[in-house]
Design goal:
Elements: H1 2-22, H2 25-38, H3 40-57, H4 64-91, H5 104-113, H6 115-123, H7 130-159, H8 163-172, H9 206-213, E1 217-223, E2 229-237, E3 243-246, E4 256-261, E5 264-266, E6 270-275, E7 280-284, E8 306-311, E9 319-331, E10 334-339, E11 351-353, E12 359-366, E13 375-379, H10 381-389
Antiparallel strand pairs: 1-2, 1-4, 2-3, 3-7, 4-5, 6-7, 8-9, 8-11, 9-10, 10-13, 11-12, 12-13
Helix pairs in contact: 3-4, 3-6, 5-6, 6-7
Amino acid sequence: MRKNKANKFIRYLKITKAKVKKLNRKKIMAWFNRNLRQHPLILGILFAVWLNYIIRLIFFPLATSELLKLHVKFHFLLFLTWFVLVFILNSLRDRQKVKWYLKKRFVFVMLILFPPLGLILLWLGAKFKKTTKIVLTVIFFGLFIVNTIYRGKMEYKILNMSTLDRMAEIITQQKGKIILKSMNPQVLGKLKLSRLPEKERIKLAVSEIYSRYSSSIVSIKTKDKKGNAIGLGSGFVISKDGLIVTNAHVIKSAYQAEIKINDRVFKEAYLVKNIPNFDIAVLKVDANDLIPLYIGNSDGLVGGQFIVALGNPMGFEHSVSSGIISAIRSSGEIKLIQITAPVSLGSSGGPLLNEYGEVVGITTLASFFIAQNLNFAIPINYLEKAINKE
């Protein structure tokens, strides 16, 4: 049995060798011409890859020698990919007789979803009138070029941003649709933020801050439409009647938010105020006996100040970490508090407290890929300004 298989393979190699010897320029060109027409799907996909590559090179100036090397490598890889895919499909051609991909509906859908592929199908067999083909080509090819240039510019802009600007962009960008049930924001008009009396402004150790204020930290579990958990976050109480502050990104795409405060679980939370530009959201639960945190003033913060972060990193409730303010950074219209206190996933929305136990910021972002101990918080005064507007 093995000898028969070996003999078949040897015969196949001999036949292939004989065919290769008989090849000439005319036969090779005929083969390429035939397969270019027979496999427009492959051609369309590779053409899209090629076009994206060429356009994006415009935004990344390179030396002539480097550019030439990239082009040679890329085009060789592209040709090799096409050749291999054509060979595979030709070996299965007896099973692929029906050209379903040339039907008008499919071509039109491809023009919308994947224009380069749609255009190749349009001109290689789709039964559209010539005038219609020209109009569709102009429209969809133009849209594809504009879209590719726009994406190229956006990527170029992001890659050339400073680390700070990139952080600010992440924080201030749109957080996605918030679907939580909402409550009239006028409830904020009656809110009086708790202030620490001057006579009680005493510097506290980390253990004292934790024992006094950890009971006002909340754990937030967000859920989808079917009630499945989709995220975790932190927050803190700012009023006795159940107003809670967190990050806007914590509740993005959530249909429901379950709030846990110590041993109490509130199955439903309502959105009172969303401040996406500063990644802040105010929620409300049905309670009247909660302990709010004292709100401080973030305008006077300077580098080197001692701070404490409270939250629920990775779902580990009532965790505490301490550090200092590395710097107060500005990017555009937003200020960020750069801190050394570790911040992990799940800590977002937790309070940043000063040495007196006053909230001076809202932890919002940790950089896991750029550097260690590069964590950020939103100044608490942004929250106060938003509340005052109400």
